[in-house]
Amino acid sequence: MIHEVFMPALSSTMTEGKIVDWVKSPGDKVEKGETVVIVESDKADMDVETFYEGYLATIIVPAGESAPVGAPIALVAETEAEIETAKQQAATKAAPAAAPAAAPAATPAAAPVAASSVAPSAPSAPVPSGRVIVSPRARKLAKSLGVDLASLKGSGPHGRIVAADVEAFSGNGTTTPAAPTPVATPTAAAVSAAPIAAAPIAAAPIAAAPVPAPAVPGQVVPFNTLQKAVISTMMNSLQVPTFHVGYTITTTALDALYQQLKSKGVTMSALLAKAVAVTLQKHPVVNASYSDAGIQYSGAINIAVAVAMADGGLITPVLQRADQMDLYSLSRSWKDLVDRSRLKQLQPQEYNSGTFTLSNLGMFGVDRFDAILPPGQGSILAIGASRPTVVASEDGSIAVRRQMQVNITCDHRIIYGADAANFLKNLATLIETNPQSLTL
Fold first, then answer.
1. Catalytic residues, which ones?
2. C-alpha triplet 369, 371, 372: angle, nearest 5°
3. CA 414, CA 403: separation in Å to the nearest integer?
4. What fold does the segment set 2-204 form as a domain?
5. pLDDT in tens, 15-47
6. How far apart are the C-alpha atoms of 320 and 232, rounded to whole Å?
7. What's the pLDDT tens digit per position in 336-381?
């Protein structure tokens, strides 16, 4: 039997994926649950496994090409005898979009826009992708041993870095080298099915594969997958009626607390996320979202924080149940999320499960701005820089205090002006009068 391998939907917002690299080549034996291809979704690079045992008969979408979710990207034959039949099947499907194959038995399957260079009887190297390919086990081992993956040369298929490479580099050769451990998958039905996503594949550091800057004035640089996802998200947000409410918060007490705690690893991002999460406990509607059936109240307070990517676009790592985590754990989690987001190693639930978003441009010296509401959420808070400000008190005295401007954008279908104003007022009270409570 011949099975189609489809482009999987690795996230709820993904509409197409890009093939980063084929781990297997045409003719290679594949086991059920084994990684065969690495796909770039809208936010991360993911290992994709096959439901089927057999042989990778032909690759329909080569490395570097994109395909819509659900489109076939390869064929898997259960027996070697079926490989040629699979190639002919792929060539037949490609025929309407490509020139007819002169000799199907000697020509590999063609993608709709370009013929593959793979020989029918022997595998060849995939199209270079310019990325460092690392097995999930090697990535975890490198992290635990403090090994810089960028300095390694892989010995696995097509230069893939495996655990043995990390062990050899670190001088620890006691562990038996092994291929990436497959994640258990459901039993495949007798019909074609899409592969499932496993652990994210480690990519090279973000600086290793940036979107090229225009070298010549007037040059057009195509959008990468992440930028396309951001564009789609922003266009969808235009369908939502929103409003903005601003508030001035004195940060003197918060700044003093930060100075006390930053040597212990506490970040300002974690402090702000914790303050917002605690305040949201009193304002569940601000943490809710719109649905056709009514107001969808969230079962958890998951704070997403926008992070700019060096190669273009942005991502929103999510601090799950931020109101229930202590400040120190929250800071450690945030550092880990940011580090992995810039290596495109986040799992989908780590960037698409937010219920409330923070966008902080204060570190750039921005005084105030309005943020665009992410689809599926009811609110996003824009945070400006904390600056020394001359303030006149009610008794007429003049003082200098550090203040910041925050602006909340809300979905007016479920949240009203009074809801937003009360939320900001309570957030300001917490930050100005009792920030120490965030450490409890």
1. 412
2. 145
3. 30
4. OB fold (Dihydrolipoamide Acetyltransferase, E2P) (2.40.50)
5. 788 888 888 888 888 888 888 888 876 666 777
6. 25
7. 999 888 887 888 889 989 999 999 998 899 999 999 999 899 999 9
